[in-house]
Request: fold
Amino acid sequence: MPAKGVTLYRQEQTHQQSSKHVVHQSRKSSSQVVKKEQVHATEVMAEPAYTVPNFRERAPEGMQEYQRMAAHFGRDLVQIQQELHRMKVATQEQVHNIEITREVKGMMPLRKEFPTEVPKAPDFLVSLRSHTVWEKTPVKLFCTVSGQPTPIVKWYRNNVAIEPLSAPGKYKIENKYGVHSLIISRCAVSDSGVYSAVATNPQGKATSKATVCVRRPAGGGELSHLPGLVPLGGIHPSKLEVTLLESFGVTFGKEGESVSLVSNMVVVPDLPNLPPEAVWYRDDALLMPSRWAEMSVGGGVAKLTLPYLNKDDEGLYTLRIWTKDGTVEHSAYLFVKDAAPTVSGAPGAPMDVTATDVNADYVLISWKPPNTTHEAPITGYFVDKRKSGAKDWVQCNDSPVKVCKLPVHGLTDGASYHFRVRAVNKSGISLPSRMSSGVTTGEVESDVEVIKIEGKYDIAIRQEELQGVYVTIPGPPTNVHATEINKTYIVLSWTPPSPRGRAPVWYLVEKCVGDSDIWQRVNTAVQLRSPRYPVYDMEDKKAYRFRVITVNKYGSSEPSEPTAPIQKVDLYGVPSAPGQVIASRNTKTSAFVQWDAPKHATNLMGYYVDGSVVGSKDWFPCNHRPYKHTRFVVHGLTPGDTYVFRVQAVNAYGLSEESQESAPLFIDAALTTPSAPYGISLLNCNGSSMTLAWKRPKHTGGSKITSYYLDKREAGSVDWKEVSPSPAVHRIFTVENLTGGVFYEFKIQAANLAGVGLPSEPSKPFACEAWTMAEPGPAYDISFWEVRDTSILVQWKPPAYTGQSPVTGYFVDMAKKGSSDFATVNAEKVGHCFLKVTGLETGASYVFRVRAVNDKGVGKASDLSDPVCAKALPGTKEIVCGVDEETGDIFLKFEACEVSETSKFIWSKSYQEVTESSRASITSSGRHSKLTFVNPEKEDLGIYSVAVTDTDGVSSSYSVNEEELKKMLDLSYNIRHPIVPLKTELNYEILEKGHVRFWVQALKLSSSVNYRFIVNDKAISSTEGYKISHDVSTGIIQMTIEHFTKANEGTYTIQIHDGKAKSQSSLVLVGDAFKVALKEADFQRKEHIRKQGPHFSEYLSFYVTDDCTVMLVCKLANVKKETKFTWFKEEEEITVDVQPNPMSGSCSLPIPMFSRKDQGIYKAVLSDDRGKDTSVYDISGKVFEDIINAIASIAGSSASDLVLQCTPEGIRLQCYMKYYTEEMKASWFHRESKISSSEKMRIGGTSEMAWMQICEPTDKEKGSYTIEIHDGKKAHTRNFDLSGQAYTDAYAEFQRLKAAAFAEKNRGRVMGGLPDVVTIMEKKSLSLTCTVWGDPSPEVTWFKNEQEVVSDDRYKITFESGKFASLTIKSVYVEDSGKYSINVRNKYGGEFVEITVSVYKQGEDIPEPKLGQMSRPATTPKPATPVPQSVKTPAPATPTPSMKSPTPTPPSSAKSPTPTPASKSPTPPRSMRSPTPPRSMRSPTPTKK
Reply:
């Protein structure tokens, strides 16, 4: 109405004397009429209060008649009530119709003055909003639609139209005052779905969608509402109709103050004793009356008072009132700023202090950190406690804790506590937070179970009674672990023992460092009764293990199982910075800010948003309590200022780094009247009139300025008079009917849709004297366009007074802002009213003035311009010249970096406005505008510019020169005379049977395309041998030649005609190119024939199994039972253990222990009666190398760590692996130097390991050794550090083995000559002779029955040349039978050899030969002295470890020890095998008598 009233008023200016006052009076009277109509309508719709009559007492005898009459009239009463309801509804509709009719009639005279509304497609001004509701509660969806003619709205659920008559009472569809709504009563879970409103009129269709989610309240714990929305509680039926009138808005408070949120409402019926039920929510939490929140409802007012504001109170407050149709609600945000700190620079107070994990003497306190913008970072927090009823607060921690959690222990069991927190930074300590709710300490876990019987009796049963086990000494705790870990402390938790006995228990905590078993008591001065304990005294970078012991008056339990090593560390740390921040306009004092969540968001508490005015470095907090979601509405901003925003993420470890700043956002003010014009200047005077000009208001009020009102007065006068009843439309106006010689002052007011703005300051007095000077007057209306970092386009308007001759040009002067030193920009005058000034300093501000020139000279300078900064607007773009790809039209296109609702694009050529003509057309939409040329020619060359009105000088220019125009014309011609665009030129490919396909692919083909193939200047048609086709969807045109021969050599061409477009492509297939194609076609033809019989679908290849076996494999196709498969190597058939089975589709040949000997040419032959196929595989060169690399990859991955093995020759390093062969690329390194095999360093290996031996090691061989196994792609390395103690021990073992080997080589031993058993007749002579060896020459000792034999007359012992030892017994007797042995030894050791001698008497049977005795003929021996019998020596046997001498071999420097006389010879029994030589055994020197 205000806009329409102003427009009507402007059209009636000629008939009214004082237009401005008439406007305001008409507005006021119009609003009063509307208010009277609304009051009248309300009185008609109001229902009178019903008064219940007092019934008289009836006698018992009249009761029966009364009941009969009551039943009769009861039925009539129901009918009357229904009729009354119908009449009430009809009356209400009539009242609405009357009100609308009056409003329409009142608008009819106004509507005549307006042009017919332009048809417009439907558009949703207010879109549908998603809802999540409880089951059996109503939900209302509403939207607002604009369009001309008025759109028709239909409702759909899951794309199915909603028909209210199909489910009576379920749906209610309304349309009041342009607001369309759908009400779903008593929602069921099945009503969940996507609801859409579809608006349609002849101009188009628009759709708005929203999701309705209906949840069932059973179960609990489930998020049953959308983020940021308040959840619905239980169902509250009410018969009251409640309408909210004035409700609380966004509210700002400060800690310590009191705030009330008030909402006025109309309740029908208004019953004093039955107020509506109202509930309050903060964010999504239901508020209850407390000392921090006072609630009241009644008398048409719902009120929430917060008497002691704290940052805990900040949030979105929602008032919900239950009504007849469901609920009505209102929400607004409450902001609470920090109170002034006691110390300057101290941080704000923490908030949301919470106590959790409450036990007998332990509780965990947590809180949220405050926001810091200009304060120093927070370094820690102090936690205070206070017993309920006490006045003094006690600090819990001696040093500030850095994380927003603190375990408090040492509390009194059964006492009630409150807690508060203070933040600390380098400037000081903050004010304390609001204290937490009271918590009472107590044992949480008990071994007593209470059972209720019929609600009357309680039976307490202990766990030990249930288990039948009665204990006095408790068991150890279980499940000891850390529930909180950070750099300040850790919290240990455990499960109490069960059963634990009836005596009270407490706990002892012990710790040890790492894997040591040195346990240290932790809680020495604290008797711990809770299964929780915080540990602080832990060193950084050290891991600790913990265990717990249960104690009661009877004793202590065994320690619990120790924990895994635990180290003080911040597991998560502060979150990463949030992502991109985007700010957008919301209202005249608010902005909508949204951002991306941080990439590393761990246990987020929320976000803090900060704002700053552009140009200022001061940041202010937008919220003072962490906000949970990634979007926030910032309130309390100043209209007209530009802001940037940043966001920080918050968790228990503190605040993240700041995000990047958002793009600057201009806070758009509400539609207001414009500010005052300024800069009134005199342009001309003829003695009776003055021509004035002025500058546009700096603030237009958010709407286009439509007119200006001028007032005048004589200098020295007080009264102002209107200049003219008609307002000025432009910023130049000629004031008529002035008195010559009088000085006049002027003031001007600007008007827009919101009304008339403030008047300007009075101009300086202008004398009404005719101008007669010969020079021209001043130019005026200096404006700036195309502002860039180093250039500005200055425009002005020519002077109204030209002097005595026409204006021939202009000079432009320039100076920096604040300077009076003007310099003329142009040395020569310019003949047009614009000039581009270049060479400016980026960011500097300048002022300009213009002087007009005629034949008489230079005229008066114009007024100074406003300062202009040489800096391009953010996002500035330039004009782009292009050609439309569809029509070929040449155009200039521009995209504005900013526009307003009233902006227009003004195109100019040589800075003269271009209008629609036969040479160009202009189209604009949103931020885009395009000027399109119609048949451009040379006369269209020049500078084109575009300016966007009602912006901060958004503009650009573009010079169309002759070269540019020619380029655009050529491109336009190609578009208007098109060719068929080809994606690929003519090409060919060889198909499976040797067919050759020639094809070309176009980007796009129509169904009416025509084409032909030409080969060697001859058109080809689709006949036998040639197949020609095309596919419109893919754009492919192809020709296939089935029999490709030498005759097909030549040039191939395809010609395409598709509408107006044409195209041609050729392919020359001659010479070498043709030979290649022909060869490939022949191969494919033969390949096709080959595949008719058994053949290889995949030829021979190899792979290596996990156990390093090389497998040659191939795949077969088209085989049958009779098909034979044979393997060959170097043309020799390979015999395999398992015959190949061609029917399986594949065959394989394993090659285990692969090495160089397996190189060669392998062949697989497949044959049957249909044909034969062969696959050849040459395992040599690169193939052999690839196989070795594949083996090396598996072997290298399986390689063990290097193992040290000492030998008598030196120190050996061994690396075990699945398979090793010398062909593998294995390299050994010593201190990063490669080792080559030599006498000193020997390199070798077996099939299971690779080794490197250091012969005769010295200190030079100390250091790190590495084996590298290369598999062609990477190296598998294993290392061993042979230095320090490892080298010392290895060298000592090498020396020991070397000495033992030397001793074994040079010790004394029997080389041969002695039999195992000797049988001899009595009185014969016996000679036992053998060869011995040793270095040095050994000593020889003979024994009989373990007693040393001494040489005498009967026993003769000889040892000749150090090699031959003998024992001769003259005339043996039966007593000489026994066990004889020889001991050969030197300083390195020796050995025993035993001989069994059996003497028999003459005439007795000769005993059977024993082990080692030669067979004899069964003849009686001659009485002569027999020659000693030769005895074969048995094969040497490897001694077992148990056969070793009990006396160790002495070192090379020591002599063999002599046994004590009491000891017997350690000769082993004959049943044991002797070590080499036969019947010998290493032995110390036997006892000598």
Observations:
- The CA atoms of residues 881 and 892 lie 5 Å apart.
- The radius of gyration is 56 Å.
